[in-house]
Amino acid sequence: MRNEERLAREILEQLGGAGNIADVASCMTRLRVKPTDYSKVDIAGIKKIDGVLGVVEEETLQIILGPGIVTKVANEVSEITGKTASLVDESDPDPFEGLAGRTKDDLNKKNATPFKLFLRRIASIFIPLIPAIVASGLIAGITNVIIRSGADPESTFIQFLNLIGWGIFSYLGVFVGINTAREFGGSPALGGAAGILIINPGLANITLFGEALVPGRGGLIGVMLAAVFIAMLEKRIRKFVPSSLDIIITPTLSLLITGIATLFVLQPVGGLISDLITKGLLGLLDVGGILAGLVLAGTFLPLVVTGLHQGLTPVHMELINTIGDDPLLPILAMGGAGQVGAAFAIYFKTKNEKLKKVIKGGLPVGMLGIGEPLIFGVTLPLGRPFITACLGAAVGGAFQAFFKIATIAIGVSGIPLAFLVHTNQILIYLLGLLIAYVFGFIFTWTFGFKEEMAKGI
């Protein structure tokens, strides 16, 4: 029996059988299911299955299997149950209608705090764009490496690579506007038009109060403000417009009013918020230096566990949009590196074969910047290694802050991020990554792990 088939059948058995599955979906690392009768589910039994790295109980039951294997298992579950396995965003907390046996009110009381709802909306705007951003940024980064290696920057080949790598960043405001309007119940096309209002080069030809407007002023913050405004305005105008005239009057008035509001209010406000974010972070790193890097990297893993890290995506993009690079991402990337070092220490120290197998499966993807398998399958369940991983990350973060390492785009952390840092900083970044590995290992080996901790794994 193939491994994915075995996993699917064993998971279904602990979920109460194939007949107890109402819906199934998968994201990058997790199998998501909606049981018909939640009381038939054996969570402890699922956690004991060989190959299951952890279980998260939120709006849906999320079984962590790791990238690659999760899609295969989802397909097997789909074949056995007859339910179509949809693919959902990592940020989507509830791709189904809700879990049986739990009312929406119960779920909202537990999960839908205003801050969480805000972060989920931010994530819903940006996370669908990350594959394109990561791919483009990686191509742009590799192109920079090729140029630094001696290639002619004016050659057709390099120009072609730059076209592919940097294209999305010129029009990112349009995509953000589309997703923002969709998230707030407006027409996606109008959201894209609101984004164009912020980034349109024609702004430079308009003078207000004696000063020419600046295309891109306010950045993605301004784009989101404009897109939210036009979505809200569209819904309100539609209430008073006859249905026969809606297709003409509603979008026209929405765009016209939003255009005026953007020029006089939304873009300046977006610029102010953008300045506060970027100058605040840069000031923190300049004044705090090593200490700032240490604290930021050392506290990042808890943010990942709670999902709060999703709210940082627009911050990274705003730094790149405003100052041209992102000094925050290399620091936070050390969170995963410290965890990798901790996992290596546990692997060499433990005699628990199941734990070794989980670590062996999670380490490669952890080094490539996908940390969930190691977080939920190793360090977090063991407890103390999660703390020592944070300590190792803190040392790496201090190193990155000291040398002011910065990326030209956002992407997954770990080793692949080396292609996104400035080309003259690649070796320094990799050295910082190694330092986080080493200190995560040392802290965990010396006082972070004892064999008795593995008994419950």
TrEMBL record:
EC number in record: 2.7.1.69
Compartments, record wording: Cell membrane
Gene Ontology annotations for the cellular component aspect, listed alphabetically: plasma membrane
UniProt entry keywords in alphabetical sequence: Cell membrane, Kinase, Membrane, Phosphotransferase system, Sugar transport, Transferase, Transmembrane, Transmembrane helix, Transport
Membrane topology: Multi-pass membrane protein
PTS EIIB type-1 domain boundaries: 5-87
Highest taxon in the source lineage: Bacteria
Domain PTS EIIC type-1 span(s) in chain numbering: 120-457
Residues at the active site: 27
GO biological process, one term: phosphoenolpyruvate-dependent sugar phosphotransferase system
Pfam families named among the record's database cross-references: PTS_EIIB, PTS_EIIC
Annotated transmembrane regions: 125-147, 159-178, 190-210, 216-233, 245-267, 287-308, 328-348, 401-420, 426-449
Gene3D superfamilies per record: Glucose permease domain IIB
Any GO molecular function: protein-phosphocysteine-N-acetylmuramate phosphotransferase system transporter activity
Name used for this protein in its record: PTS system, N-acetylmuramic acid-specific IIB component /PTS system, N-acetylmuramic acid-specific IIC component
